[in-house]
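Quiz preparation item.
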């Protein structure tokens, strides 16, 4: 081994613990980043192949009832490459005594000839016969059933029927059933009749000709198909065009991976700062060695090679740890995400470009991080190096911080000395505080984003001041419904609301997508909308309408102050948009007073939607009251389509967000580890650099206890200062970060919240790591003799 490399290795070994901490910090940051690359490499390939293998429809058109002749004509349209008719209807599946789960039934015309949005048989019999049902594999647990058992199914217009579960299927296009708490079932046309429903289909699933993956082409083509169908007398009630070739949750996955990559990259940059500190400290401690090397002929280039070599060695060791760790974490994350997105991974292979990029970044970050301190240290002259005695040559008391410190009085001298020592090397202190504050800011931002998600959902549920929502299959007299429900034990109060689907009729005669209008009584105590534009509803309002933020994003024409023509059922009426309500995590919806709505929709004196406040609102009590209501309403002959408690609704939202919370916690822990290692590294460097100074203090009478206390105080002070800076920086970046994630995933903004618990957790981390980092070198220094301390290089 050449002399230069021997010195490089020996320098790193002499500072073995600091070198190991820096290697570990780089490895953690790099493995976090490489796990993202590995996950991205696996999921983008598998998700595309898995989803496209189902031959997903370019668009779905809803009509009242499909006519076979029109369907045959549609197949001959030049814009249509493939076509399949289906129907999807809501139902309920009984999962226990008086306990039901919401279900979606998909009616398949011919199981043996599915060409669009294909299903993959999993277990049991294929295809389903009459009186039989196939269940999506993830929904089996939700339905609490198994292959060979029978389930009781009830549709809105039909009667309770027993269907035999003959098998399971995998429907890639559906969200995870356990997360949605919904049962996906697949039945034949004849089974639909057995359930008491009128047997007809109402959806055209279309694959367009030409470039089916071009969004603009698909939009233009489907609009032309819709226009042609309407010209032939078909009424298209809804048109749905998904992003071509993209899994419905692909954007969610992309945002999560982008979010994770940002944190992984930051952790990597944070570890780069540790390299800067380590190399700076190493070169500061070896200024005289550099002077001697130059005095006997070494050039600046040769000195640079020695210390750059150290950075390369650190990077290489970190790479050897990070690559296998990143692969393992990436595959585990890909597996987790595939279950979340309800598809199977066929291969865990990682593309070669991932490894190339990991190696490049793993070497690039330490090299860049060490470049400046090495450049500055290698340019020192022999005279400057030989005359260096380890402390700044500026006179204390000339800077503004020195003047502020001089004003401090009335405290013990060791503590005053600790404060002065803290601010003595300002550049080092700034780098230390910057590193720690950056790590703390990201940790606190992750905590605050999580708190903001929870706070926003809390506010949403606070505006919905009821415990149960009951939907009926048809309109029933309000007086009769309320009389039965008020006689049910546990019902404290209730309100009958109006609800219907509305469609905007544009001036040119075209129609928008339908949206629900909800109409509580004008004196409602159960709904407190958060009005962010215009005004709320007033008791005397007639055709006034409040739209929520999701609806105005989907249909911008429904802005505050606008007058619109709506079709509700077969009736048309004019409405004034008087306000905009903020409802995060909620679909497009509008609100009005019941009295005018009931006349405009033909629902006067009748209802199909009731909201209930229960005597007790704990989950067990509400579930018991729900079962009692189910029994009472069924005994009275009132057909319900769903009874949903607020706890169940909250559970669904929380399940969707749980993956975000998990990501945030994992990323926060990643930052904690890297930030903690950074604090320990920096504090140990600060203490070791001052061993000779400690020797002088000991020589003039300072006891070991006082020296130890002084250094621990200094470490705690640096930790506390970084904590304050982290709070300020974390507060500044929390809102933009949270809103970016929420906008990308849910197209809504968050109500900001601060995680007080996270602030104190980070304070404990900084104080604990600072004390630990200071204690060991301080303890060693206090136990050393004055001669050993003064001789330290």
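Solution:
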């Amino acid at each position: 081994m050449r002399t230069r490399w021997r010195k490089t290795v020996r320098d790193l070994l002499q500072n073995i613990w600091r070198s190991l901490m820096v290697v570990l910090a780089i490895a953690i940051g790099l493995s976090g980043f490489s796990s993202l690359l590995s996950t991205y490499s696996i999921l983008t390939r598998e998700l595309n192949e898995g989803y496209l293998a189902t031959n997903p429809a370019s668009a779905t058109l809803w009509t009242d009832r499909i006519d076979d002749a029109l369907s045959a004509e549609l197949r001959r349209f030049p814009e249509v490459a493939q076509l399949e008719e289906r129907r999807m209807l809501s139902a309920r599946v009984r999962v226990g005594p008086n306990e039901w789960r919401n279900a979606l039934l998909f009616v398949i015309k011919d199981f043996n000839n599915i060409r669009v949005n294909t299903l993959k048989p999993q277990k049991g019999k294929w295809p389903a016969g009459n009186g039989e049902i196939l269940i999506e594999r993830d929904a089996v647990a939700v339905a609490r059933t198994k292959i060979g058992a029978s389930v009781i199914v009830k549709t809105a217009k039909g009667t309770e029927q027993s269907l035999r579960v003959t098998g399971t299927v995998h429907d890639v296009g559906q969200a995870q059933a356990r997360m949605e708490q919904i049962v996906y079932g697949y039945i034949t046309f004849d089974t639909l009749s057995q359930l008491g429903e009128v047997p007809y289909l109402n959806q055209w699933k279309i694959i367009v000709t030409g470039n089916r993956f071009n969004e603009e082409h698909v939009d233009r083509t489907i609009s032309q198909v819709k226009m042609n169908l309407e010209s032939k007398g078909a009424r298209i009630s809804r048109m749905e065009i998904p992003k071509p070739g993209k899994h419905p949750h692909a954007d969610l996955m992309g945002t999560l991976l982008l979010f994770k990559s940002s944190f992984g990259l930051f952790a990597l940059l944070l570890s780069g700062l540790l390299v800067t500190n380590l190399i700076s400290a190493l070169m500061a401690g070896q200024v005289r060695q550099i002077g001697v090397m130059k005095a006997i002929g070494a050039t600046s280039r040769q000195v640079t090679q020695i210390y750059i070599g150290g950075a390369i060695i650190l990077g290489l060791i970190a790479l050897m740890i990070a690559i296998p760790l990143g692969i393992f974490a990436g595959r585990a994350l890909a597996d987790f995400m595939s279950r979340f997105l309800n598809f199977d991974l066929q291969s865990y292979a990682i593309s070669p470009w991932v490894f190339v990029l990991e190696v490049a970044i793993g070497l690039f970050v330490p090299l860049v991080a060490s470049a400046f301190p090495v450049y500055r240290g290698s340019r020192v002259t022999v005279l400057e190096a030989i005359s260096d005695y380890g402390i700044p040559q500026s006179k204390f008391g000339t800077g503004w911080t020195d003047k502020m410190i001089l004003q401090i009085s009335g405290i013990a001298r060791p503590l005053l000395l600790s404060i002065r020592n803290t601010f003595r090397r300002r550049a080092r202190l700034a780098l230390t505080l910057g590193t720690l504050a950056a790590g703390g800011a990201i940790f606190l931002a992750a905590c605050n984003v999580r708190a903001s998600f929870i706070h926003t959902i809390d506010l949403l549920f606070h505006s919905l001041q009821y415990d149960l929502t009951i939907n009926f299959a048809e309109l029933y007299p309000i007086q009769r419904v309320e009389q039965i429900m008020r006689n049910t034990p546990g019902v404290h109060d209730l309100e009958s609301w109006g609800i219907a689907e509305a469609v905007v009729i544009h001036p040119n005669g075209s129609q928008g997508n339908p949206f629900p209008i909800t109409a509580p009584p004008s004196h409602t105590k159960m709904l407190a909308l958060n009005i962010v534009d215009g005004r709320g509803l007033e008791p005397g309002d007639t055709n006034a309408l409040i739209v929520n933020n999701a609806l105005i994003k989907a249909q911008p024409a429904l802005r505050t102050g606008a007058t619109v023509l709506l079709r509700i059922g077969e009736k048309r009426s004019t409405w004034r948009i008087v306000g905009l309500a903020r409802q995060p995590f909620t679909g497009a919806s509008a609100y009005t007073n019941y009295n005018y709505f009931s006349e405009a929709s033909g629902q006067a004196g009748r209802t199909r939607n009731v909201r209930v406040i229960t005597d007790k609102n704990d989950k067990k009590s509400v579930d018991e009251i729900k079962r009692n209501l189910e029994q009472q309403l069924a005994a009275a002959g009132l057909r319900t389509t769903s009874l949903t408690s607020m706890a169940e609704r909250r559970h669904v939202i929380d399940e969707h967000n749980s993956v975000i919370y998990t990501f945030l916690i994992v990323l926060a822990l990643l930052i904690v580890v890297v930030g903690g290692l950074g604090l320990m590294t920096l504090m140990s460097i600060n203490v070791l650099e001052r061993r000779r100074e400690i020797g002088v203090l000991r020589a003039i009478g300072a006891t070991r206890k006082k020296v130890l206390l002084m250094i621990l105080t200094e470490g705690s002070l640096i930790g506390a200062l970084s904590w304050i800076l982290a709070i300020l920086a974390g507060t500044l970046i929390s809102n933009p970060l949270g809103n970016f994630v929420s906008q990308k995933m849910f197209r809504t903004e968050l109500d900001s919240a601060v995680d007080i618990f996270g602030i104190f957790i980070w304070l404990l981390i900084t104080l604990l790591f600072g004390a630990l980092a200071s204690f060991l070198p301080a303890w060693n220094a206090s136990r050393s003799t004055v001669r050993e301390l003064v001789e330290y290089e």
